[in-house]
Amino acid sequence: MPTSKTVDRVQTGVRIERRLLKVMKGVAELHDISLGDLIEGVMLHAFEGRQPFGEETLKRAAQLREVYGLDLTAADSHKLKEA
Fold it and tell me: What is the rounded distance in angstroms from the CA atom of residue 21 to the CA atom of residue 7?
């Protein structure tokens, strides 16, 4: 088992699309981790070009996307406008 590393976390105010946040919270809940831990994990995987989720998590995320009506895709990133 890898050794835990000590980090210095900061509180931040981040604006994020409402339905995306609901799905993210659902995925975090599936793994019994905080939303912050989920974001950190996704970003650390992305920085290494690695997939952050396995097949089962992706299936559950797809279900959550349907429940919350999240129709955005990666192609939509950086193109979103505020209502």
Answer: 24
Which pLDDT tens digit goes with each residue over 7-29? Answer: 999 999 999 999 999 999 999 99
- With CA atoms as reference, report the closest residue to 35 among 16, 51, 21: 21
> Structural domain boundaries of the chain?
18-71
pLDDT in tens, 31-50: 999 999 999 999 999 999 99
Residue 25 makes CB contacts below 8 A (sequence gap 6+) with 35
Q: How far apart are CA 30 and CA 60, in angstroms?
A: 9
Distance CA 70, CA 20 (A): 6
CA distances from 2 to 26, 48, 52 (A): 26, 18, 18
Measured CA distances, 46 to 23, 30, 63, 68 (Å)? 18, 20, 23, 24
